[in-house]
Amino acid sequence: MSSEAPPPGFELPLRLLLAFRTIIDELHERIAREGHPDLRPMHGFVFQAIGPHGTTASELGRRLGVTKQAAGKTVDNLEQLGYVERAADPSDTRRKLVRLTGRGVDCLVRSARIFDELREEWAATLGEEQLRQLEDGLRRLAPGDPFRLDTPRWFGAP
Amino acid sequence: MSSEAPPPGFELPLRLLLAFRTIIDELHERIAREGHPDLRPMHGFVFQAIGPHGTTASELGRRLGVTKQAAGKTVDNLEQLGYVERAADPSDTRRKLVRLTGRGVDCLVRSARIFDELREEWAATLGEEQLRQLEDGLRRLAPGDPFRLDTPRWFGAP
DNA sequence: TAAGATGGTCAATGAAGTTGTCTATATGGT
DNA sequence: ACCATATAGACAACTTCATTGACCATCTTA
Q: Which nucleotide is nearest to A42 (CA to C1')?
C-alpha cells in the first residue's frame, strides 16, 4: 500500500547511472583479465557502430554523432590497438571499409559472454522474476532502441 | 513462471543508460525553459560537489576526481555563467570559498522540483508499486551512495 | 558529359584535462 | 619561537579529442 513517503525524485536517475556504471566497470575489469586491458567504456559503442559487416569512417561518424574526421581518428586509434582494420571497397574506390579484426571480434564475443554471466549473477541476487520486472519497467520508462550510439558524445556535450 | 528465455545480458545496462539519459534530457529541457538554458548534464554533479556551504577549488577537484587546476577552470566557467561566486575565507587567507549564488540555488531548487515531477509521471506510467520495486532492485544491484561525483570524468576516462 | 554529392585527408582551432612550477600561507615538531 | 613540511591558488606548456574549413578523388545523376 505504499504508506511510506516516496523517495526524492533524484534518486532514481542516480541509481540508474550507478547501476550502469557498476556493470560497465565490472565488465571492463573482467575483459581486461581476459586479454583486453586497453578497452574503454566507449569502445563497446564504437564496435557496435562498426557492426559485423564493417562500415566507413563517414558512416561511423554519423552513427556516433561526431564528424567524419573525429571518427577517422577513433579508427586510427583502434587500428593501432589491433581491433579494427581498413580495407579497400572494390565497389567504390573512394571508400575504405573499416572492419573488426579477429581480435575485435574476440572482444565482442567475450563481452557478450561476460554480460550474460553478469546477468546471471544479478538474477541470483534479485531472483529471475524481479530482474525481469526491472527490465520490463525500464522498457516501459525508456522504450525504443537501447543502442543510442551517440552516447559517448552526449555526456560531455557542450 | 519465466518460461521465456532471458534477454541477452547487454540489454539491462543499455536500458539503464537509456533511462538515465531520457530522464536527464527531460530535466534539462524543462529547466532550460525555466531560465537556465546554459546548464549541461555534468553541472548538476558540480553543484552537488560544491554543496550548500561552499567549498574550495582544491576540495572540489578531489570530489570530482580531477586536478585542482581543472576544478578551478570549471569554477571560472560557472562564475561567468553566474551560478557560483568566490569569497575570501577569513579563517585561512590562502583559501577562496566557492559558493552557489542565488541563481545557483534557484537552479538546485528547480531541479529538485522537476525531478519530483518526473518521478510522479513515472509513477503514473508504471504504478507507484512497480516503481518502488524498480528503485528497490536498483538499490540491491548497486548499493551505496548514489552520488558518485567523479562520474563526469569517468565516462571519457582514458 | 558536366554538376553536384560523397568519402577521405590535411591543417588550424578550441575546449578541457594534465603535469610542472611558483608564491603565499598554515601547521606541527623540536 | 622557529623551521620543515604541507596545502591553496595561479600561471604556463602540453596532450587529447573534438571541431570547422579546405581540398582532391570518385561516384551519381540530370
A: D17
pLDDT of residue A41: 84
Residue A94: which of A73, A63, A67, A68 has the closest Cα? A68
Chain A / chain B CB contacts < 8 angstroms: 190
Give CA B24 to chain center in angstroms: 9
pTM (predicted TM-score): 0.90
| Burial category of B61 from C-beta neighbours within 10 Å (exposed 0-12, middle 13-18, buried 19 and up) | buried
| Interval B42-86: pLDDT, tens | 899 999 999 999 999 999 999 999 999 999 999 999 999 999 999
Separation in Å: D11 C1' and A60 CA? 40
B103 touches strand D (CB under 7 A): no
Q: Which three cell numbers stand for residue A76?
A: 586510427
Exposure on the CB side of residue A74, measured as CA atoms within 13 A: 27
B154 three-state secondary structure: helix
